[in-house]
């Protein structure tokens, strides 16, 4: 007769190691999303500054160009676009990897197995990842819209002013 207790123990140990690795990967994913968000915020801040300068330039030069009303409207449009890019980097709720001790205490006090605790942690991380991805998409949409407003309004104003200056 064969004793399969060692193979059952090995299988449980393997499952636990796989679960630990899966939770670790979800924490790495959360950390990566935080890094992406930080980079996106930096990019949005830089572009917002550039757009603000462009908008101010259009507004302050409005009286000295061929189509002053166009420059004024273009400046306002650029500043509206800058507001959109700024909104994409505004502080927002975002989940970081890991938990506070109090989040584990109930499971420990209830006598949950390590396996069950890891499963709960992995499921909680999945919810955090989905939430963070939703926030990143919202920010990316605001940034793209703001960039398009800035680019289109700047190009239109510049092209029309150039045509006006050439035709004089």
Brief summary:
This protein has one domain. Helices cover 83% and strands 0% of the residues.
Structural commentary:
The protein has helices at 5-60, 68-87, 101-110, 114-167. With 168 residues, the chain is an all-alpha fold. It has one domain (5-167). Helix 1 packs antiparallel against helix 2 (68-87). The longest helix has 56 residues, at 5-60. The N and C termini lie far apart (103 Å).
Notable characteristics:
mainly alpha; 4 helices
If you average the pLDDT, what whole number results?
91
SS-based structural class? Answer: mainly alpha
How would you sum up the global shape?
Answer: rod-shaped
Report the sheet with the most strands, covering strand number, pairing sense and barrel closure: none
**Proportion of residues in β-strands:** under 5%
Q: Count up the helices.
A: 4
Quaternary structure state of the chains depicted: single chain
**Strand elements, count:** 0
Helicity level: over 70%
SSE topology string: HHHH
Domains, number = 1
In angstroms, what is the radius of gyration? 27 Å
């Amino acid at each position: 007769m064969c004793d399969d207790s060692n193979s059952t123990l090995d299988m449980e140990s393997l499952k636990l190691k796989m679960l630990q690795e899966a939770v670790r990967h979800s924490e790495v994913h959360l950390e990566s999303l935080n890094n992406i968000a930080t980079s996106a915020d930096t990019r949005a801040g830089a572009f917002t500054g550039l757009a603000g300068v462009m908008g101010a330039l259009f507004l302050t030069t409005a009286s000295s160009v061929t189509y002053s009303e166009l420059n004024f409207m273009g400046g306002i449009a650029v500043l509206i676009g800058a507001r959109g890019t700024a909104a994409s980097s505004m502080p927002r709720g975002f989940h970081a990897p890991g938990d506070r001790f109090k989040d584990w205490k109930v499971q420990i006090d209830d006598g949950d197995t390590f396996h069950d605790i890891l499963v709960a942690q992995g499921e909680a991380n999945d919810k955090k990842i989905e939430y963070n991805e939703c926030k990143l998409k919202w920010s990316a949409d605001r940034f793209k819209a703001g960039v398009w407003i800035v680019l289109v309004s700047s190009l239109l104003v510049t092209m029309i002013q150039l045509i006006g200056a050439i035709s004089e």
